[in-house]
Amino acid sequence: MDLGTRLAELQKRTIEHREVLLTEEAAKTALVMPFLQSLGYDVFNPKEVVPEFTADVGIKKGEKVDYAICADGKVNILIECKPSTSELNVHHASQLFRYFSVTDARLAILTNGVNYQFFSDVEKPNKMDERPFFTFSMDAIKPSDTRTLEKFAKTDFDIDKIIQEAGNLKLQSLLRKAIEQEFSEPSDEFVRLFAAKVVEGRLTPATKENIARMIPNTIGSIIRDRVNERLSSALNASAPVAVAPEKTDSSVPEDGIVTTQEEWSGFHIVQAIASRLIDPKRVVIRDSKSYCAILLDDNNRKTVARMWFNSPTTRYFGTFQGKDETRHPMPELTGIYQLLPQIEARLRELDDSIPA
Does residue 78 fall inside a structural domain? Predict the structure, then answer.
């Protein structure tokens, strides 16, 4: 079984059971240990995967990190775990920072079993960077994530190659965020760059504003066209007889609505929560320009929740009581599980046949 298949099975388990894994120990046993196994490590060999790894750090005596992956008596990777409902941030990595400088480790992982953050010492030798060079989520594993994770597998582990690539991965991650920011909310410099290519004469404020509004939709249209081209090529290659496709309008759709992977992942989390009370098929997603709604029975009068994920900097998840909406900051999708009581209460409010 290849790594991609093992990760797909673990992803299914994560989505099905995460809401009950409220403690750190539960997350470690049900999510993190299987993840390490999927990479080929023997979690039951204490010389290879050391639980509760201890090293004295200055005046800090007896501090522990959850796991250390070792080879030939040397520590390769340090791992710190948190409950699956915790939102990861750099403050959770204090022990990793301290241990990084007093062990042989060049890699560290901070995880809640769902989200994984990989750190190294790209900026300064023997000092763990404050920003991860690679992150991925079990909610939405991309093919590129699997290819990167293969480098951390036991059979292919080469610390020198990983460290060499860590700098590129970190730069690529920062570049991706910068590009996504420009694509969703173009800066003045970005707008002026393209305006100079399409506008003759002076750039008026009205024209500038119009171009800034068009850029995200135009980029979205280009991406959709490229995806459709690849799908068409694949279908034509496998079909015995090619059928001429109908002509379509490749311009930006009138509604300009694109449901993102994060919105789909958030929707699936709500479905998983709802499955405790009702048939999850009754919960549906309906996107709009401003927000992405989650409805009961595809009825716009029965809004279960709303995802305000369109801003690249701040995301909110809206819960309802009656007609009143409360927006909760949602930097990470795992935070939706902390709103389980509000979501279940809303379902009971919308369907009085659900037992209290």
Answer: yes
How many other C-beta atoms can be found within 10 angstroms of the C-beta atom of residue 24?
A: 18
- Is residue 348's pLDDT more than 70? yes
Residue at 60 is within a domain: yes
- Residue 67 CA from chain centroid, whole number: 23
Cβ neighbours of 111 (radius 10 Å): 26
Read off the pLDDT of residues 176-223 as tens digits, 9 standing for 90 and up: 888 888 888 889 888 888 888 888 888 888 888 888 888 888 887 777
- 62 in a structural domain: yes
pLDDT, tens digit, for every residue of 49-66? 999 888 655 545 667 888
* Sole residue written with tokens 């410099």: 189
36 found inside a domain: yes
